[in-house]
Each structure stands twice: as C-alpha cells, then as structure tokens.
Write a sequence for this structure.
C-alpha cells in the first residue's frame, strides 16, 4: 500500500496539465505517487503525458464518467492510505504536503483536510472554490472562510489558523481511503458540483472531522470545465444541492428547510431573469427543481442509511443562520462578520 496517492482527474485538460503538473511533480514526488485518471479526453492529453511526464501513472477510464464517478472509478484502482484529489489547474508550493500528512498521521479522528486555496491570478486573494475551508448555512448555502457568495476576500493572514470545517474543497482534498469508502465515496449520480460537500457531510454525520490547514497553501485557476453563468452548472448546483439536503438533513429540519428552499430557489430564478436578464440560468433552476422531484425517490434508501448511521445531530460547522439574510440584508460580506 502506498502512503499518499495524488490523483488528478482529467478531461481535455492537456494545456492545464502541461502548465501545472510540473509543480506537482517537483514538490510532491518524494512524498506521494502522482496519478492522472483520464475521462476519455479527445485533446491528446494521454499522448502528451506519455511523452513529457513518463513518471506519472496513467489510469484510462474509457468514457467520461464526470467528476464524482470518475474519481470513484479511478480510486478503486489505487491502493493507498491517503488519497489526495487534486484539480489539474493547481500550482502547488514547497512543503505543501507535509503538514497535511502529519495532521492525518497524528489525529485519527480527522477524516479529511484541505490546504488554503489562493487565486493564481492574484496570489494575495482567496480562490472561490474553497478559500480557507467551507461551511454551510441552515438552508444549504455553502460559504468559506474568505468567500461569501461572489465576494472573495484578500488574504491578509486573517484565517491562518487550523480549524474544523464542514467541507473541504474538491480542488485539493486529502482524505483517508478507509473513510472515503466507509461512506461510499463521492455520489456518482451528482456527476459534478456539490459532490465534495455531500461527501464531507456524510463523514461529519458519522462524527468524523474535516480540517482546513492554512499552513499548507496552493494556487488555483478555478472555473473548471463549466464557467460561471453556464446553465448546466446552474442546473447541477441546484439539483445536487437539493439532493444533498434530502439525503443528509436530520429529520427535524427536513420539511422546514425544503419548504424554505422552494421559495428561495424560485426567488433566485426570477432574480436571474429580471435583474440579470439570464434566461438560461432562469430555466436551469426550474429544470433542476423538476429533476430533483423526479429522482428524489432514488435516494430514499441513501437517506435511511445515512440517518441510521448518524453519530451526531448537531454539526457546529453547519451554521444555524441564513447566509442570504446575513449577506443581503445585514450587509455582512466577510466571514469574520458572520454571527
């Protein structure tokens, strides 16, 4: 069994790999084995990797399984104590792995951790996808130390302390393999978006800890395959977020939260249409609500199993307030301003 397997899931990311894989190899080769799992790319990624990065181990998945199931398929083929799921558009830094390895080695109650995520375009700014660790509000809206909705903070060291978080970013997620498989891995039905939050929530329900370790820091391009404002991204975010809530919310919160989300989702849709004149995203929200309604029954067994395995009802990192209210009504645009 290997100690650490860094696994980069790739789909037509030859350019990103060419630019950022060298830093991963330079600063990780002594502590980890680097894998690239390819989701049936058509841009020459595999031939480029074979020609220029012979030290990287390749996993050819054959078809595009998406982010969630692609990782499941790849990780089934890797025997390692720790997995590190890493995006292809990440530039890592010297000594980035050691603090996370030492953390997991010394704290058996921690299932997963993430480094601090900064923007590659402005290295003094947090990056949207995970910043300095993720949280969740009462109604299922994710936010981070360093990012609330679209407001991203400048990194002045204000969150440079280790803390428990609700979710760790899928852009750079280090997780014990035994914990990953104990909860069934990423939910492949999600395809992409919210899948790492769903995974971390299932771990937290079992009493396992998730930690952000800002001592380790990396730089992220962000945006991924689907840029912001793409209707498919909007659809996946809304559908998957509702599904995650249905699976993981405790029984006493389920009906209330889902009723509120009905109103809030349609309010968001009309805001997209009237204020932003974005017809695609407007339609995507309605489509996502319908899709969730149609496939909710497919997750009944999941919900039952998750609730039966619950070790704790109260998860402190799921904050008992409305982020929408705090942000838009109270004007609190920074994590440190939240109650």
């Amino acid at each position: 069994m290997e100690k650490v397997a860094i696994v980069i899931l790739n789909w037509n990311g030859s350019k990103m790999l060419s630019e950022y894989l060298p830093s991963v190899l330079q600063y990780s080769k002594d502590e980890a084995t680097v894998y690239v799992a390819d989701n049936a790319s058509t841009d020459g990624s595999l031939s480029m990797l074979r020609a220029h990065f012979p030290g990287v181990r390749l996993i050819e998945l054959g078809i595009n399984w998406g982010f969630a199931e692609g990782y499941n398929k790849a990780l089934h083929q890797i025997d390692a104590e720790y997995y590190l799921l890493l995006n292809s558009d990440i530039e890592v830094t010297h000594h980035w792995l050691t603090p996370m390895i030492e953390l997991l080695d010394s704290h058996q109650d921690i299932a997963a951790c993430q480094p601090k995520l900064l923007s590659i375009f402005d290295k003094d700014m947090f990056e949207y996808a995970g910043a300095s660790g993720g949280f969740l509000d009462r109604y299922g809206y994710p936010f981070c130390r360093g990012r609330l909705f679209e407001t991203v903070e400048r990194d002045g060291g204000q969150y440079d302390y280790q803390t428990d978080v609700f979710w760790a970013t899928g852009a750079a997620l280090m997780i014990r393999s035994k914990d990953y498989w104990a909860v069934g891995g990423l939910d492949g039905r999600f395809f992409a978006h919210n899948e790492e939050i769903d995974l971390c929530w299932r771990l937290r329900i079992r009493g396992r800890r998730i930690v952000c370790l800002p001592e380790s820091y990396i730089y992220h391009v962000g945006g991924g395959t689907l840029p912001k404002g793409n209707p498919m991204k909007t659809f996946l975010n809304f559908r998957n977020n509702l599904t995650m809530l249905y699976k993981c919310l405790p029984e006493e919160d389920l009906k209330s939260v889902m009723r509120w989300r009905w109103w809030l989702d349609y309010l968001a849709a009309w805001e997209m249409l009237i204020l932003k004149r974005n017809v695609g995203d407007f339609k995507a929200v309605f489509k996502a609500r319908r899709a969730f309604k149609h496939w909710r029954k497919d997750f009944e067994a999941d919900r039952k199993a998750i609730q039966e395995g619950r070790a704790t009802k109260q998860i402190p990192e799921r904050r008992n307030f409305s982020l929408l209210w705090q942000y838009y009504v109270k004007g609190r645009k920074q994590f440190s301003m939240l109650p």
